[in-house]
Amino acid sequence: MSGMPSTAPARGAATPRRRAQRRRRMIAWVFVLPALLLLGALVLYPVFFSLGRSLFDASGDTFVGGANYVEMFRDPATLKAVRNSTIWVVVAPVLLTGLGLVLAVLTEKIRWATAFKLVLFLPMAVSFLAAGIIFRLAYEQNPERGVINAVVVGVHDTFTDSSPYPKARAREGDGLVPADGGYRTEATARPGQSVPLGLVGVPPTEVPSGAEPAAAAAAEPAGDDELRGVVYLDFTPGGGGQPGVVDPKEQGLPGMTVEAVKDGGDVAARTTTGDDGSYSFTGLADGSYTLRLPAANFAEPYQGVNWLGPALVTPAVIGAYLWIWTGFAMVLIGAGLAAMPRETLEAARMDGANEWQIFHRITVPLLAPVLTVVFVTLVINVMKVFDLVYIIAPGPVQEDANVLATQMWLVSFGGGNDQGLGSALAVLLLLLVVPAMIFNIRRFRRSES
């Protein structure tokens, strides 16, 4: 056996191959090293630093262990931020995925599909800062500045008449006293009397253009079975008028509702003043009546919805987020829809399936992988939302709109100056995002294999 020739390669024969392998490894490390350095500096170091910082107090000098994590779940503001983040995670991705799916299916059936997708995708080019400013202005409650409330008020006023004289009021001692948001006469009246009702507080420029002088109506006597009078603006332009008296230059107030109320409180009759402010009740039973100007005459005009109030600020911010990201969801789902085999859809149509059955039983199941990726990506994104919440929510309701990212910034830098508690919030946010990221990565790997 010892005399047989050896078939093992000489040690020196493998040296060039090993040198080539070492050279390739070194070249690979040269290209990978900058990325690893950036990954360590921008990701790993901040993560471990935040984890360590969360174990110290606000000053960073005293080790407190898990006290910041305990305090985090005792703080009402943090609990409210956790609740709002939960609302975001549950509502926003579901709505965006659903809207993206519906729009992707519908755009396939229109001629200008590309232009339509481009228009919907354009908000993605707008920064969150600019979008927040846009929607902060759009959500203004004053309809003269907030476009959304301008539309709401316009629709409301189309179906409901607004109050004619919200600033009108009665002078004290002129015979009218406040009653249930409106005014009533201090003394009772009977048929055959004429009762003038003077009001002030209405700027002459806000009196309707068709208003006529009230003097003639005030001078007209009442019949025996008639209770009449005039509602007028007790103000003479240029001065010289006498309070409580209808002067020649004083205007009537048209469109004012007047009620005749019996002693028991029941409304016996109701009428509306004419262009000269005159009103008249005929056919009243004999007796005493109180004349009343109901509160509807003086109600403030409808100002729309308080979108940025405590109750609606979170849905309002989510609405702005939907405006930005709907195009993203539509384009991704549309790409999956374009890759779907058309033979399956045509076969279903030939078998008699309607469009809803095709959508429900074929399109959605085949798009399930794409829908899942879109949904999980949006979940990760909404967990980190900061700009829109911080910009859109006004200061007084900022706490009602906070999510974990904004609460973390406010605690650390926005006045709290407690980087220990802020770092604990950052760690919590990381722990909530990591599972979704791992799930998405696994989905990508399974789709590639």
Automatic annotation (TrEMBL):
Belongs to the binding-protein-dependent transport system permease family. This is ABC transporter permease subunit. Residues 211-221 have a biased composition (Low complexity). SUPFAM superfamilies: Cna protein B-type domain, MetI-like. Gene3D superfamilies: MetI-like (1.10.3720.10). It is a multi-pass membrane protein. Keywords: Cell membrane, Membrane, Transmembrane, Transmembrane helix, Transport.
